[in-house]
Protein: 5'-nucleotidase SurE
Organism: Pseudomonas fontis
Amino acid sequence: MRILISNDDGVTAPGLAALHSALADYAECVVIAPDQDKSGASSSLTLDRPLHPQTLANGFISLNGTPTDCVHLGLNGLLERTPDMVVSGINLGANLGDDVLYSGTVAAALEGRFLGGTSFAFSLVSRLPDNLPAAAYIARKLVEAHDRLALPPRTVLNVNIPNLPLEHIRGIQLTRLGHRARAAAPTKVVNPRGKEGYWIAVAGDAEDGGPGTDFHAVMQGYVSITPLQLDRTFNDAFDSLNGWLEGLL
Ligand code: MN
């Protein structure tokens, strides 16, 4: 098997190296990752300039693009042989609830949808790398078990790992996405030449984070796995919208 590994923290991120190490003796791994931190890139593609892959000393391929660019190229001609699976991470920082809308980590996994199998996105609920070994161990266990999965195509498993050493992780819970409250207002800054700007603030707190949600699972010390699908059609809205459209034109 051939696994394409990517991330959004960038090609030099410790979580990427940890994920690669965990999978290197399990499958043939190719790493293609952004040359800089692209957290928050969601599923953006770079369309205004060419992309230049560069192979680094460790064999990882660095790309001047987004996580989605990396996987897109990896599955569409850059590599001699098409990978069988996409695995993304390990992100330093949670990707819970509304985060999946912005996450480049999740986006990289979503870009693997054409392969027909299940892609994985891994995030450690910490900005610090201390518990990456536990997260990498769990990533390996889950990827190894992929051949027993029977999910429809275009499915991503969004995995969030609590910031704990392995012996303190209580198990795995299947969860739904919770919701975050709105983020705080952007922080206004002024540069030395007097030009004003804004830093987008950190994500809001969990607003819907009760039992059954991804937020709750990691808070309780469990690995959270949320199955994500690409189809965001709101089927239950059809009845109401049919009434709304009646006689409109
Ligand atoms: Mn990130």
The first strand starts at residue 2 and ends at 6. The pocket of manganese (II) ion is lined by residues 8-9, 39, 91, 93, 105 (CB under 6 Å). Helices lie at 14-23, 67-75, 99-102, 104-110, 132-144, 214-219, 238-245.
